[in-house]
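Lab notebook, bench 4. The sequencing result for the construct came back, and we need a structural model before the next group meeting so we can plan mutations. Quick request posted to the team channel:

Model the 3D structure of this chain.
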Amino acid sequence: MTIPDDYRIISKQIFALKKVERGYTGRTLYVNVDTGVIEERPVTQQMKDVFIGGRGFGVWRLWNAVQGTTKWNDPENEIVISSGPVGGTTNYPGSGKSIVVSLSPLTGNVIDSNAGGYFGPYLKFAGWDAIELQGKASEDVIVFIDGVKGTVQLLACPDTDINTHVFAEKLIHEFAGSDTPRDIAAISTVSAGAGAEHVRWGCLNFSFFDLKRKALRIKQAGRGGTGTVFRDKKIAALVVKSPAVRPDSNQPADLKRLQEVGARINKEILELDSSQCDMRRVGTAHLVEIMDEYDLLPIHNYKFGRHRESGNISSPVWRERFGQNMPDGCWLGCTMSCSHAVDNFPLKTGPYKGSHVLVDGPEYETTAGSANIGIFDPEFVLEMNFYCDTYGIDTISFTTGLAFVMECYEAGLIGPEVTGGADLRFGNVEAALEILHQMGRGDGFGVIVGQGIRCMKETFAREHGADPVFMQDIGMEAKGLEYSEYVTKESLAMQGGYGLALKGPQHDEAWLIFMDMVNNQIPTFEDKAEALHYFPMWRTWFGLVGHCKLPWNDVEPTDNAQTAEPAKVPEHVDNYCNVFAAVTGKEVTPADLIVQSERVYNFQRVFSARMGLGTREHDAIPYRSVGPVTVEEYESRAERYDGQLRDQLNVDPVGQSTAEKVAILRAHREDQYEQLIDAVYKRRGWTNNGIPTIAKLEELGIAFPDVAEVVRPHQ
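Done. Here's the predicted structure in token form:
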């Protein structure tokens, strides 16, 4: 195709077209957006053996690009995007993931975030296992990878409206070189809107063309501010053009085996999904009423776990709103089809007021985040969802951060003189949307909010005299990352799942609430530590190979409950062994998959230590995630907490003030968390300060000289 005239070519390289072999192309693409250097870098056998792909490739490339002193906004910081060897298969559902790795503006540490959409698979089929982006451009640029012609170009971007729903739509049509839907569908983009320039919560939007709707769709790599890094580098977009995708595009070692295992899971999904999680009709939003029932839905900055109005934003509402005549998948051949959207939604606020737009979602996290700020209006959820997406702002951090602000406002720590006059009480729809639009414009109090809870705590204490101890208790961030949307007070294992997660409190590493709180399957510290070893390693594996985790346990075989370890869904674990072997030709056992993840997981923990982080103090969590901070919280569940004082601590609550009971319970729960950390570190082969031991690194085959140099002072 011919590049449109208004996209000036800064640099260009021609590369040999290269097919995938057993899931790999054998090379990665490096682009320096400052110098214009575009080069091919080899994927070594060691990279495949140790780091597998996806997140592993990203962490390895980033390790070699930065120093321990590198900051997120330094030119040498990279954004690395990779799929993984299984990524892009159309034979097994959920194989369309892209994983982004960078240094985070929120945490200063390594962040990994995954997204659906077509970019990662298309990048591979265009000839590249990963793309590394480094440097800081002097003007907005686009990187265009043409996998049909074998060219990579760095282009000057003339566009001024870079908000995703406008910009990405324009790009896919212009770079397709044709108005034929199939040609347009061969294009995928990565972009971040104007909001990502002004806040640290910037997300990346990964696009795909919905052939049924004839419209652009997007999925987000939301966590950790990768969109902020993207815009700090003045990257406006990545555009990839893929050759036609076929069932054998990955050139698997055994296509028949891959098709057989795919047919088995696809049959389960089509027959069982409607009676289980109903992902094909409502997606993750089905969790709203379940979390509310179990007192786990975050309300008013995680103070409470249920609300009488939660039904207003529960799954029946979204079933009515979604385009239900079309199961929606964010990758070809995914029968899970959980990527739903609302069509022709009329915007009521902001720069696009009056437009009728497509809203991707809402997912559970976005909907639950609305409950967390006390808003139970589906119109608000959709308006907020759309603007967060097009501005390039993570919905989780936005709602969790705003919930913190609202509690500070209601507690009198800040007032309207701080917020620019905004009445930031829980439930104020108008004020919440105004803060969001300020982030999009880059003005007002919204910019302060968008720096994240950790920065806000410092600012409110320093400039407005707010109580730092109280803010530490209620500021729902750990490691600098805002919490995702679950109340963890009655699940010690889930508190550990959040606090011990490498990147910060995100549920995609370990979600153990039901095993721990509801089913009491892991009662001892050792049981919890074992779960906090296995499940983070297992979930890490999906990010290494390019899989989505939803087909693993959001549909289950009919006899799964009768298996020895139903939480692991053993039939599906066996499926993944077959999928990996069928694609790569390397036979593996379930234990092998865990070891693959252990290598990358431990390496990433060492990476954290290299950045001056990754020790025990950084695994601390705010007390709000452990137990009741305020008298109001305690009294909302007084019968439960009084019973715990009697049964667990042998303390008679009669005659004790609520404040005294809060303090007694707190001392106990904080001690429980510290004992949990001890047990988890021991199970993982780490020191009592949270650093992998030399022996553990040698066992995993990753005690490379520069890795050992980092950990040796901590032994």
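The mean pLDDT is 97.
Will bring this to the meeting.
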